[in-house]
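Section 3.1: Structural characterization of target chains.
Under the original work plan, the team committed to producing a structural model for every single-chain target entering the pipeline before any wet-lab resources were allocated. The record below documents one such target. The sequence was received from the expression subgroup and is listed exactly as submitted; it comprises 405 residues.
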Amino acid sequence: MRVLYVSAIAFSTAVVLRGQCLYFRRRGFEVIVAASPSEDLRRLALAEDVTVIPITIHREISPLHDLRSLWRLFAMMRRVRPDIVNIGTPKAGLLAGLAGWFARVPYRVYWLHGLRLETTHGLKRRILSLAERIACRTATVVPCVSPSVRDVAVAARLLPPSKAVVLGAGSANGVDCSRFIATPERLAQASRIRAELQIPEHTRVVGHVGRLTRDKGVGELVTAFLALPPQFEDCRLLLVGGFEDDDPVPEQIRRTIADHPRIIMTGFVADTAPYYHIMDVLALPSYREGFGTVVLEAHCAKRPVVGTRVTGLVDSIVDGVNGLLVPVGDCSALSGALSLVLGDPSMSMRLGERGFLRVKESFQCESVWSQIEALYLEMLQSGWPANVSNSKAHPGQLRSDAQPK
């Protein structure tokens, strides 16, 4: 059984889906990965023992390059003849979905990792909406990484409910808890990093992990941090990630991050695990998410999370159980929630412990991978029709209304 993974950038498969290709290799699948050429693609081939095919796929709209990529994807699929094509980024969803349709790949699985169109307007939103509709139309089945992503996608008429599935409680890959839990080695590493960043040992830290963009709510986070009550005047804001030109943070916020003595930005970090053990709370005031994998990572480190009540985060954060949710864009509410967690160590510990238990119960990698494997096998063994929207029964119907525990 041959599975072809396609994404615009190899990072999506090498890091976001870390370990998944190797799992399927060990389960007897032949795994091939196609993505834009990069060092990540080369490392993936070595780390997970898979065949890789470099095919450039531009993330932004580029008609001439896109037509060339479409033809190369089609020719590659006709040559490789996969049983299943697994597509994981919006641009790849459009191009690889069309290529798979034309190449008559039996089963085309397009993962909705989130909906970028949620925070766009006008012509750009219409273009993104059309691209998502085409990607979903050419797919046999569309796994959504969270129930709320599924609900928004169906409500926006991007796809029929019969195609949209949520496996288990959500997530595309789960999380390898062993990478983030507290071990003597990891705590020692965190202590060294804290010293390098010149954060005093007992100083409280609000953390953020991920791209520094407008959609991630970085502007609101900086504003909320600076509005913390006087008892937190020694607190630090630790931003683990770097700026991106796409969806940039407002210039005033960038200057504040650069100039403020209590705000620390690390830039891109390959291994974020020890940084969670520097933080007292993870803040994720996003405007949209697919699921929020960093929430699971923070919970593995038994850290509480404060996030916004938006798509994706309403599934990864259970308000008052493993974190706190505030209205999107509400700096005052965000500052209040951070103050509450920072000022109440027993609450912080309780939220972190419950988050850890929820990850262990529902979101470990092996559990998510086995659910994906079950979907693949059911498709292959049942001869599931290529146009699943015309099928009266299919595997997704068993999971399409799944809710997180």
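Residues 63-80 form the longest helix (18 residues).
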